[in-house]
């Protein structure tokens, strides 16, 4: 539990640095609200982690793997990636070239997601039942939420009193906290090399991997930005209709493929494929019920994600300083978040999943409505603390419940890949819509935006009676 708390801490720190904190940094550097909204699409990368998750199930990182094992080797590499990307963001904190800012933000998102994939797979393998998952998931989320608070408050206080460069460098150093613990743990059974030799070889291999990842990301990014510019997507473009069409495409594609998947036998190439087999198996087991499951998970965290990227710019626009936001995101947010996570983790061990999911959705909605309430209050830190506490408590509770629910849907033979697919797909639609959040706010204002985001959280509740009827098909021996 202590180790997974630390891993959650290491993953939670960078997430705020390429989402909420980055939004405030861009705002301070004079970037328009619409373009800040576009930066929310950096958060789309974790939704596509199923693309490379099977690789983490099948391969080890050279140097690290033979000594520290498959899961630890990927976690160690990901930590080095997080540190290097965040250091680069620190050295380009003026945001004079937004393409460069986007490059390092994407790399930070990629390595953060890789860390989560490896850690989630390890967690599910170690704790395959709800009773075991509840405490372990809570420990992981305590670390994650604590890190988000530390990044949100610490980075803003440092930025307000020093510089954005200092803020990013400090968080980069803190994100390496589990690194010495992981490399000092005893080597895997049967390791043919010592800890020091494995560490030296792994660091050399990691330097090459990190450089290759940066080069590929830069190339793909250049192509995508050129295509967006040619299509006329800029700060004045209304991208919402295009985003809604993209949201519908995954469901249309899955519906067309399902009849073929349901007929697949155990030796079918689709089910035996290393690349798509884990995902085909999920649809084979749940059939058309998989579409209902995916629709539900797409909506459950919708309100949280929509609020994440623009809540701090709204608070800043109300007249609160970076230091005031940082203080609200420190002890107040930490206590509220940990209480929400703890209560959510406890409820899944004592109650049926349906009622627990409904309770989590209600409190997540209350957290979003708190921003509407805050906008109607005069500027005072006490009101800010109250709204922050409601938001963090609701997000923490809903997050803990959701993690356990997704963990129970996976097949242990494909733990890493299937959990990556489910947790990634859960945020695909919300993050697509979040990218057009700046456009929406420009049309309806912050008040109505957060009112809609709260209602979106409640929209998951009507799915629960239908989900209770979904039963997976038995897997052949």
TrEMBL record:
Looking up InterPro entries in the UniProt record yields:
AmpG_permease/AT-1 (IPR004752), MFS_trans_sf (IPR036259)
Topology term for the membrane: Multi-pass membrane protein
Main localization category? membrane
Q: Quick check: keyword Transport in the entry?
A: yes
Gene3D superfamilies in UniProt: MFS general substrate transporter like domains (1.20.1250.20)
- The membrane spanning regions, by residue number, are 33-52, 73-91, 97-118, 165-184, 196-222, 242-261, 282-300, 320-344, 356-376, 382-407, 419-443, 449-468
**Tree of life domain:** Bacteria
Its localization reads:
Membrane
Q: Indicate yes or no for the key word Metal-binding.
A: no
Which UniProt keywords are given for this protein, alphabetically ordered?
Membrane, Transmembrane, Transmembrane helix, Transport
| GO cellular component, as recorded | membrane
Record-given protein name: AmpG protein, putative
* Native source organism of the sequence: Pacificimonas flava
């Amino acid at each position: 539990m202590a180790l997974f708390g630390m891993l959650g801490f290491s993953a939670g720190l960078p997430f705020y640095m390429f989402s909420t904190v980055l939004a405030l940094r861009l705002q301070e550097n004079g970037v328009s609200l619409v373009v800040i909204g576009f930066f929310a699409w950096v958060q789309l990368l974790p939704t596509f982690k199923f693309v490379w998750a099977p690789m983490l199930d099948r391969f080890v990182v050279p140097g690290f793997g033979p000594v520290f094992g498959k899961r630890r080797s990927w976690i160690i590499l990901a930590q080095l990636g997080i540190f290097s990307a965040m250091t680069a963001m620190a050295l380009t904190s003026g945001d004079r070239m937004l393409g460069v800012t986007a490059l390092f933000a994407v790399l930070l998102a990629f390595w953060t997601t890789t860390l989560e994939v490896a850690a989630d797979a390890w967690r599910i393998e170690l704790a395959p039942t709800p009773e075991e998952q509840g405490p372990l998931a809570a420990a992981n989320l305590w670390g994650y939420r604590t890190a988000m608070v530390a990044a949100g408050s610490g980075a803003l206080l440092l930025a307000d009193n020093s510089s954005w460069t200092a803020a990013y460098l400090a968080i980069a150093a803190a994100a390496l906290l589990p690194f010495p613990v992981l490399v000092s743990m005893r080597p895997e059974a049967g390791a043919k090399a010592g800890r020091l030799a494995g560490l030296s070889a792994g660091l050399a291999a990691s330097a090459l991997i990190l450089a290759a990842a940066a080069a590929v990301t830069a190339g793909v990014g250049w192509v995508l930005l050129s295509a967006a510019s040619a299509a006329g997507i800029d700060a004045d473009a209304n991208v919402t209709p295009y985003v809604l069409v993209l949201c519908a495409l995954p469901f249309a594609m899955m519906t067309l493929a399902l009849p073929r998947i349901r007929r697949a036998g155990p030796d079918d190439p689709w089910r035996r494929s290393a690349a798509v087999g884990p995902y085909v198996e999920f649809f084979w087991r749940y059939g058309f019920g998989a579409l209902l499951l995916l629709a539900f998970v797409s909506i459950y965290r919708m309100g949280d994600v929509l609020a994440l990227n623009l809540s701090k710019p709204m608070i800043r626009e109300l007249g609160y300083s970076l230091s005031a936001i940082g203080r609200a995101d420190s002890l107040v947010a930490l206590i509220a978040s940990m209480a929400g996570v703890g209560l959510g983790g406890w409820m899944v061990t004592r109650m049926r999943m349906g009622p627990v999911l409904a309770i989590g959705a209600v409190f997540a909605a209350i957290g979003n409505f708190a921003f509407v309430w805050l906008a109607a209050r005069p500027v005072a830190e006490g009101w800010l603390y109250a709204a922050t506490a409601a938001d963090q408590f609701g997000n923490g509770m809903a997050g803990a419940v959701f993690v356990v629910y997704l963990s129970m849907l996976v097949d242990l033979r494909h733990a890493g890949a299937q959990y990556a697919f489910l947790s990634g797909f859960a945020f695909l639609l919300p993050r697509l819509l979040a990218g057009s959040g700046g456009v929406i706010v420009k049309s309806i204002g912050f008040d109505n935006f957060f009112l809609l985001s709260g209602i979106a959280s409640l929209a998951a509740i009507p799915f629960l009676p239908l989900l209770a009827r979904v039963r997976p098909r038995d897997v052949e021996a």
